[in-house]
């Protein structure tokens, strides 16, 4: 077993335990008993599973999963669905993409857009419980309706990834699986190391050994600019002052990308996303939980920086981000290595994908108030020292030049679409629960 195999597969809110030498001694003495009971349990499980129908297991307990079908890992039905999902519909220039984090916010939108234009798409997601998994299941149901199969598994699972690459010849990987969130890194630091560092390395190990090697586009973050004060943030700026562990793991990811490009000839493009928002978004983000709390009449905390300074973000609408992701995939050159050996220099890129117009958080709240037609109970407080930075602002001229990236949605328009989705999604959920 490789060391990466030792990492538990689905962290979410799981926190790794600290082990000690004494614990290990006690553990070894009870190993024999444990082995006996494990063997007994395994026999029991095998009997039960052999008796049940082999392929289709629709979930009974979670209402959002009722329409979904999951296929037993590795079986013929599983492989059939994998191949169908990976099939390219367009006659020429289609690509076959593994989208990691496909049930996530950006992953869902990118997967749907790729499928719409005829590309082959396979999703991978561990469905962890960092935020309400029923939202991820609803996104999965949406993708399934357009013929996208999401494999349930973790990017740290070596065997699963090997199997996927054996069955499907991926031309591209869109790597969006990550532990997101700036403030949560203080609560559960190991989940960031697990997904954003160990998971990335594991994925790149598989990609470097694949034949052909895919080109990889992956999600970095605006947070790598950390405490920089020169604005707008440019890719040429130093990124050596991360303010959170989240930012530090994304910065580490950029360095790891450099290494795999240098040694193995992998084509790698990192996209620094700037506070992405929109329909099907992440409930841990401020615009999302502000909406929820305003509607409930609960007070919301609005952060301000030192000396009553404004905190602002370069909020970027999801459709603009999707266009940037697709353009990055389309302009990615092929990796130059094969079977783990570099054959020549390969492309290595980093782009800012922002909106270029920062908006104060208090203005975001005013827009939400107007659209929800409810006054917010504002509680303005000093920004806690929890990994947040006072402002972000993207210089996007590189992405404009190389990718033709041109964001077109202002915050007012984007939030209108988000609010419309939010009200319809959650009123639908209430109706379903009442039925
Ligand atoms: O660009 C990124 O790379 C990151 O974007 C996002 O981080 P942020 O820009 O911090 O977004 P988000 O948490 O929505 O806070 C928005 C604003 O509300 C302020 N904020 C927040 C909470 C609160 O209670 N009050 C408040 O004023 C807060 O100070 C901030 O000014 C992603 O979550 C992250 O995963 C990563 O992708």
UniProtKB/TrEMBL annotation:
Major subcellular location class: Golgi
GO-annotated cellular components: Golgi cisterna membrane
Any GO MF annotation of the entry: UDP-glucuronate 4-epimerase activity
Broad enzyme group: isomerase
Topology term for the membrane: Multi-pass membrane protein
Subunit structure: Homodimer.
Protein name: UDP-glucuronate 4-epimerase
Lineage: Eukaryota, Viridiplantae, Streptophyta, Embryophyta, Tracheophyta
């Amino acid at each position: 077993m490789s060391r990466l195999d030792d990492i538990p597969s689905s962290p979410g809110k799981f926190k790794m335990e600290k082990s000690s030498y004494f614990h290990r001694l006690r553990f070894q003495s009870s190993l024999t008993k444990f082995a006996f009971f494990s063997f007994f349990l395994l026999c029991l499980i095998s009997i039960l599973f052999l008796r049940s129908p082999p392929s289709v297991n629709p979930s009974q307990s979670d209402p959002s999963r009722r329409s979904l079908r999951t296929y037993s890992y590795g079986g013929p039905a599983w492989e059939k669905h994998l191949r169908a999902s990976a099939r390219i519909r367009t006659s020429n220039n289609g690509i076959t993409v593994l989208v990691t984090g496909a049930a996530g916010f950006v992953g869902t939108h990118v997967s749907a857009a790729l499928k719409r234009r005829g590309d082959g798409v396979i999703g991978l997601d561990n469905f962890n419980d960092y935020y309400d998994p029923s939202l991820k299941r609803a996104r999965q149901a949406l993708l399934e309706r357009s013929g996208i199969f999401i494999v349930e598994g973790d990017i740290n699972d070596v065997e699963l990834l090997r199997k996927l690459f054996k069955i499907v010849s991926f031309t591209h990987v869109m790597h969006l699986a990550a532990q997101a969130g700036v403030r949560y890194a203080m609560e559960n630091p190991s989940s960031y190391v697990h997904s954003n560092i160990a998971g990335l390395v594991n994925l790149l190990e598989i990609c470097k050994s694949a034949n052909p090697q895919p080109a990889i586009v992956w999600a970095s973050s605006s947070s790598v600019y950390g405490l920089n004060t020169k604005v707008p943030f440019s890719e040429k700026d130093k990124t050596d002052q991360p303010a959170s562990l989240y930012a530090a793991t994304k910065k580490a990811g950029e360095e790891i990308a450099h290494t795999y490009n240098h040694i193995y000839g992998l084509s790698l493009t990192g996209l620094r996303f700037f506070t992405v928002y929109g329909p099907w978004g992440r409930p841990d983000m401020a615009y999302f939980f502000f909406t929820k709390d305003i509607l409930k009449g609960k007070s919301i905390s609005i952060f301000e920086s030192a000396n009553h300074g404004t905190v602002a973000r370069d909020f970027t609408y999801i459709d603009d981000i999707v266009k940037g992701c697709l353009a990055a995939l389309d302009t990615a050159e092929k990796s130059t290595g094969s079977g783990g050996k570099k054959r020549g220099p390969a492309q290595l890129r980093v782009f800012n994908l922002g909106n270029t117009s920062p908006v104060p958080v208090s203005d975001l709240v005013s827009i939400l108030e107007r659209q929800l037609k409810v006054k917010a109970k504002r509680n303005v407080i000093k920004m806690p020292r929890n990994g947040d930075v006072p402002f972000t602002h993207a210089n996007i001229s590189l992405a404009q030049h190389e990718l033709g990236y041109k964001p077109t949605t202002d915050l007012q328009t984007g939030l209108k679409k988000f609010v419309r989705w939010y009200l319809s999604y959650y009123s639908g959920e209430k109706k379903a629960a009442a039925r």
